[in-house]
What we know:
Elements: H1 8-11, H2 20-32, H3 36-41, E1 43-51, E2 57-60, H4 62-74, E3 83-89, E4 92-98, E5 104-111, E6 117-124
Parallel strand pairs: 1-6
Antiparallel strand pairs: 1-2, 3-4, 4-5, 5-6
Amino acid sequence: MDASNLPKDTAKNTAKDVDQVAVVVDWLDACRRHDLGPLLDLYAPDASLECKCDGGNTCAGRAALEAYWRPQLEAFSPDAFGLEEIAPSADGVVLDYLNFEGKPISIVFAFDAAGKILQTRCRPSAPATAPDIAGVQNRAR
């Protein structure tokens, strides 16, 4: 089929054609399975990761992402990679989850035109406080 006859929106694949939330769910599932190869396959070749969880860490490219993720997937807590909340955003998708140590993290995923993860930016997030029966947040006494 000759793509030149199609409307421009149809002729090229864009990140909007991809279910970005589903890609993030696949990312989380790969983390839970300790599956480094499929995890890295979700990233674009020139992807970058910016982590502000432990003093800051930035890496780019598949080899650097592999060096970052390998130790985290090999040694993690039973609560690791638990889903807290996931939502589309103007920048891509925001995921609140429990990291490999079971600590609450907020991560923003940005995607390239092919629907691959182009950039992730993560930071620690505060754990949610359960509301009491009246709907008022519990307070430390």
